[in-house]
Design brief:
There is one protein chain. This protein is of the alpha+beta class and about 400 residues long. The protein has helices at about 10-30, 35-50, 80-85, 95-100, 120-125, 160-210, 215-245, 260-275, 295-315, 370-380; strands at about 55-65, 70-75, 105, 130-140, 140-150, 255, 280, 295, 320-330, 330-340, 385-390, 395-405. The strands form 3 sheets. Strands 2-1-5-4-3 form a 5-stranded antiparallel beta sheet, sandwiched between helices. A 5-stranded mixed beta sheet has the order 7-9-10-12-11. A two-stranded antiparallel sheet has the order 6-8. Strand 9 and strand 10 form a beta hairpin.
Length: about 400
């Protein structure tokens, strides 16, 4: 009996399906070995676009603090900052439907679907024609949504659904593992750092139990306990901030604000601290007229305050601090320069590492070692960059840039 004839189109489709699943296996092996969350998310969206032959891809994860979905990664990096400030409601949105039903969904004509969340298209001037979405599920609980937009040729097929659902399954596991790794790694570092002040407090407690301890020594020991307790409180606060930033759970409010006014506000806050050490802070009364910065004002304020307080702490007595602003290629650049002792060249590459502190042989005030890591992460989340320059016995300059609200 003759076998039924399989035309070239069927053989071509079968061959394409085999190639896609082979590629999917390669991708899942890569995802399972990636523990850096930003790099992992980038791998997922690039792989999803390749496997489904689509124009754009996005990953939205549930923000437990707001009960809404938030964009964590999109194909076009230039639109990332704008997308991050757009929360997607669970009720009445396509992504929300995929999340709550925990099932994939094809929308052949997004414009005619009342659930289409048009705020995204309007913000980044993108036209969504068709959507295929799959839930990101970990331990039978949805954590987000993986969406591919605008099939390049034809319409979404059942093969597309199956390939995206398979990728989403592996992606969810990889995302949870990356988050857990970041948290466990940070916790291990934190526990290690806590030992020093705890050991100091324990030793001081033992000294206070000695019956013959002179009053002046008792006061000195009590002061050490107070200082180390304050250090522990600051460290735990910084630790929580960094943990939220690294796990993607930090909530950023986006609104236009005046960077010049923010800098002046921060300078007023730290002026008493600077005056105590005789340090003068200079900020020109006339700054370049600039469009507003669009970002989380309170978190950028945290960055500026961190740089100013560091410039005071590590400055010389009666030293100087120079704050400046400049415009450059659609961004505002803020710099904080001090006249302190400077940073050794070998320490410069490590200044933004978690818990790193420059070896201190001169009794300068030490911080938690987290402030700069937090500041850098906040700036980068806003789409900016942070850098530093330093020369020993001359001083240090920290700079950061933020995109303007053009």
């Amino acid at each position: 009996m003759a076998k039924p004839y399989k035309g070239p189109e069927r053989r071509k489709d079968h061959s394409l399906r085999i190639r896609r699943y082979r590629r999917l296996l390669e991708v899942t092996r890569t995802l399972s070995s990636t523990l850096d969350l930003p790099h992992l998310l980038r791998n997922i969206i690039e792989s999803a676009r390749e496997l489904t032959d689509t124009e754009a891809v996005s990953i939205m994860l549930m923000d437990a603090s707001t009960g809404q979905l938030r964009f964590e990664a999109i194909t076009n990096k230039d639109d990332a900052a704008a997308m991050e400030r757009i929360p997607v409601p669970i009720e009445g949105s396509i992504a929300g439907t995929i999340f709550t039903t925990a099932k994939p969904l094809i929308i052949a004509d997004a414009a005619s679907d009342p659930r289409h969340f048009r705020k995204v298209d309007n913000t980044i001037t993108f036209v969504t024609r068709s959507i295929l979405g799959a839930p990101l599920i970990s331990k039978e609980k949805p954590i987000g949504v993986l969406q591919v937009l605008n099939k390049m040729k034809g319409s979404f097929t059942q093969d597309d659904v199956e390939i995206l659902e398979a990728l989403a399954t592996q992606a969810a596991v990889a995302i949870v593992n990356a988050r857990l790794f970041q948290q466990s790694d940070l916790i291990a570092e934190m526990v290690h750092e806590l030992r020093t002040p705890l050991t100091s407090i324990s030793a001081c407690g033992q000294l206070l139990l000695r019956p013959g301890l002179p009053p002046d020594k008792r006061d000195e020991v009590a002061q050490v306990i107070q200082n180390e307790t304050a250090r522990l409180a600051a460290m735990t606060t910084d630790f929580l901030d960094l943990a939220r930033l690294e796990s993607g759970r930090a909530h950023f409010e986006r609104e236009p604000f005046d960077m010049d006014l923010l800098c002046r506000e921060c300078i007023n806050i730290v002026t008493p601290q600077a005056a105590h050490r005789g340090v003068e802070i200079h900020f020109p009364a006339s700054q370049p007229a600039a469009p507003k910065v669009n970002g989380d004002r309170s978190k950028i304020k945290q960055v500026v305050l961190n740089l100013l307080t560091n410039a005071i702490k590590y400055n010389r007595e009666n030293g100087q601090i120079y704050v400046a602003m400049a415009l450059s290629e659609g961004a505002v650049k803020v710099s904080v320069r001090d006249t302190g002792r400077g940073i050794p060249a070998e320490a410069l590459p490590r200044m933004f590492e978690k818990f790193y502190r420059v070896p201190d042989s001169e009794g300068y005030t030490q911080g938690t070692g987290l402030g700069l890591a937090i500041a850098k992460r906040i700036v980068e989340t806003h789409g900016g960059e942070m850098s530093l320059e330093s020369e020993q016995d001359v001083g240090t300059t920290f700079c950061f840039t933020l995109p303007l609200d053009l």
